[in-house]
Amino acid sequence: MPDRLAQSLQETVDREAAQLRAVTESESIVKPASGGWSQKEELGHLIDSATNNHVRFVRASLEPEFRGPGYEQDAWVSLHGYHDMPWSDIVEFWQRYNTFLAGLVRRIPSPLLDSQCVIGESAPVTLQFLIEDYTLHMQHHLDHILKREKITQYPGAALGV
């Protein structure tokens, strides 16, 4: 099971990295009229998500039950200043960090995938759910960044994870 979860994460990274590299610097800085994030900021959000989930994956693998905070995504994105970084640096960091996480997921012993995780005030979920949802959350944002017609949905959005 960890191999399947890691493979799904790595395949997402491998499939999408080339598409992200095709985005130009000038395209990556455009903010939508609605006032949302630029592509740089949205990919930066995925780096912040990787950071938060990295801790969750490790602690849920080492502790009997993981309880941890959610995170203030807008504040993280702002504080990191992704909008002012080169697009190519953000893409490379996103790719390397998620490849690193895929290796971590591959090494989680299967029985630990049932470990309970509570994020903020959300209902408990398993570590397996957290990993699967992380990959779907990533795909959701990548679909948006790459302006796809169909945007992937992910279960954690409804749960507040």
What order do the SSEs take from the amino end to the carboxyl end, as H and E?
A: HHHEHHEEHH
Q: Which class in CATH terms? A: Mainly Alpha
How many H/I helices? 7
CATH architecture: Up-down Bundle
Q: Assign the CATH topology.
A: Four Helix Bundle (Hemerythrin (Met), subunit A)
Give the neighbour order of strands across the main sheet. Answer: 1-2-3
Helix content bin: 55-70%
Largest sheet: 3 strands, mixed
Percentage of residues in DSSP E strands: 5-15%
Q: List segments where confidence is low: pLDDT < 50 over at least 5 consecutive residues.
A: none
Strand tally, please?
Answer: 3
What is shown here, in short?
The chain is mainly α and 161 residues long.
Q: What does it look like?
A:
With 161 residues, the protein is mostly helical. It has one domain (2-29, 36-159): dinb family like domain (Four Helix Bundle (Hemerythrin (Met), subunit A), Up-down Bundle). The chain has helices at residues 2-21, 25-28, 39-62, 73-80, 87-106, 127-145, 155-159, and strands at residues 65-68, 116-119, 125-126. It starts with a helix and ends with a helix. The mean pLDDT is 95.
